[in-house]
Amino acid sequence: GLSLLFLGGIDIQVDNQSLDAPNRFVYKGCMLSGVPNLTYAMGYTNASWTLKCDLTHRYFNRLLTYMKAQNRDSFVPGEPDNTDATEGFLDLNSGYIKRYEHELPKQSTQSPWKLHQNYFKDWWALRRNPANDVGLTFR
User: Fold this and answer.
1) Rounded to two decimals, what is the model's pTM?
2) Cα(136)–Cα(132) distance, integer angstroms
3) Which of 2, 73, 99, 105 has the highest CB neighbour number within 10 Å of its CB?
């Protein structure tokens, strides 16, 4: 059957520690809590894959522009206030998703730590909300 590898199985390290994806929260559907300077593109499961990838690309450009204007070198998403209110990474019940759900990051029940699978909500969050939105720290 189909096997999932989050981020293609890349060994991402923060401070010489391998990323433990199941203990991270998704931020705006394109970043992970506690992981500096990383965005990833993951499309929708219910619409064209490239719609979300385009929003992610444009958001990342906005982040870089903000960082340059503020003379900042890095950004890092934090965690939601309530880390107990979680949902699975994807809203699918397919066997190949359920088998690997324990290896995927968590999402909160609250934005911006919620994965919407909704272009209009993501458009607002990634194109209209400020680049220095709640939950992001810049250094």
Assistant:
1) 0.90
2) 6
3) 105
